Amino acid sequence: MSLSQRARAAQEAIEPVTSFFLSLRALDGRPGVVDLTFGDPHEMPLPGLVDALRTNVEPRSADWFAYKTSLAPARETIAAGLDAEQGVPFAPEDIAMTQGAFGAIAVAFRLVADAGDEVVIPEPGWFYAPMLRAADLVPVRAPLAAGSFDLDVEAVERAITPRTRVVVVNSPANPTGRVYGRDRLDELATALEAASARTGRRIWLLSDEPYRRIRFDGIGFTSPAECYPWTLVDYSYGKVLLAPGQRLGYLALSPRIPAAERAELRSALVPLQMGLGWGFPDAVMQYSVPALEKVSIDVPELTRRRDLMVGALGAAGYDLTVPEGTFYLWGVAPGGDAVAFAGALAERGVYVLPGTVFDRPGHFRISLTATADMLEGALPALRELAG
């Protein structure tokens, strides 16, 4: 056997994703295909993003493109933005610049967890399991509340064992679009304090917040960092800029972590990122952070697209979860078989993501980052298969 155990475990954990895309490959090249799978852009990039990159690609010193770790202007801008958004005074030195949220999550897991430790992840949820398997960690799934997909604190409590080291919270949540309220997060904080005392081992919370700035209908946002001191926060600019190929994100240590423990974590960030393969964003992306803090996807237009699809698919009989944030629409697959449903849509030139990717084989996800014309073009096939 050539593969390492961790490589094979990661391969198996992400198999639903790879098998789905292999099934689509046979259909590649057809004209007029409407791809609603991932949150990729389908229009020209935001002018503010292009301007920032154009400005900062011009070198101003001999070391402009030299090795960079986490640059101070980027960290200072982010700390000020977090304070303004959440009223939590993050320190610039407690922010590690990373290659998107993927990079931040990889650092977070290795910063506080050891091989064999368990990490509680939401179900349905994002692709945490392959990352955990690749780090020799054990994913333990905690279902979200049935029907509402709200955070189910009792389910998290049931998932905790003496080996639990991290609990992941994703709000606004991918794929459901739910935004968790302060009351539920306070309840979770109380549960994690009690579980830490019971097991004699501190349980950390990783707040996965890449969609934090993409919310609808005036819905507010509470970070778990406001509720639970032992919190790490990851963020990605790729969502709000709709530029996932430009890898820029960060991991932030909550200022409410006790000073001695926070200093220990802080001192390990650069060595750990170096050990993971120089896990820092490219220099030009870091130089651009002060300008990019002011750039955003058009949320009102995204709201219109959400309302278009919710209205049309609801009228066709689909059972949908109306998203409060993110740019996804989550629904029940007609007939209960998401793979068959996605396959039938693909035959009609429309690609959606089956819920098998999120351990929910009866659901599907649509990305609203498609153009309005693309979404309109997908509706006839979606109506045809409504059941």
Automatic annotation (TrEMBL):
Keywords from the named record: Aminotransferase, Transferase
EC number: 2.6.1.-
UniProt xrefs under PROSITE patterns: AA_TRANSFER_CLASS_1 (PS00105)
Cofactor(s) it depends on: pyridoxal 5'-phosphate
One family name in Pfam for this protein: Aminotran_1_2
Keyword Transferase: yes
Gene3D superfamilies per record: Type I PLP-dependent aspartate aminotransferase-like (Major domain)
UniProt entry tagged with the keyword Transferase: yes
GO molecular function: transaminase activity
Class of the enzyme per the UniProt entry, highest EC level: transferase
InterPro entries to which the protein is assigned, alphabetical: Aminotransferase_I/II_large, NHTrfase_class1_PyrdxlP-BS, PyrdxlP-dep_Trfase, PyrdxlP-dep_Trfase_major
SUPFAM superfamilies noted in UniProt: PLP-dependent transferases
Domain Aminotransferase class I/classII large: 33-379
Family: Belongs to the class-I pyridoxal-phosphate-dependent aminotransferase family.
Protein name, as recorded: Aminotransferase
Organism this protein belongs to: Promicromonospora kroppenstedtii
High-level lineage: Bacteria, Bacillati, Actinomycetota, Actinomycetes, Micrococcales
